[in-house]
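In this supplementary section we document a worked example of the pipeline. Step one takes a protein sequence of length 141 as its only input; no multiple sequence alignment statistics are reported here. Step two produces a three-dimensional model, which step three serialises into structure tokens for compact storage. The input and output of this example are shown verbatim.
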Amino acid sequence: MSDLPVRSPSAKVGGIVYFGRMLDKIGAHRRGELPSEYQPNLGKGFDARCTAFLGVDYSQLIEFGSGGQTDEEVLHWCFTHGVRPSEAEIQVWNEFMRKCGWNDDITETLERRKRESGLAERSDIQTMFEYIDADEGRACD
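The serialised model returned by step three reads:
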């Protein structure tokens, strides 16, 4: 799925992983470019974790972010309407998200998704970020 209009979950905005991907999915959905298999999970899963981390409501984020703002402007809105995490909190968030699926409560989901995508034999894929990148045609870091 290399033509998918969303960036890697590892890409950072304001030093925060996943946030940009969430914005890309919101924008792609608004433009009618988000594949149907991505749509049921909008606002759920990692999206919900990200908005909870920033202390904002997903639907309000969508409403604010629909005016053509830059990623940084949307992030600043999150900081003023939710919480502004410290550098240490961002580091913990980034490392937590980067390792989701590796020996935790998401491991079973990761293994199921790998099987469904024909990637079950890929022992190098040990986290959800690695799976997402591989499934979408990006090289795993």
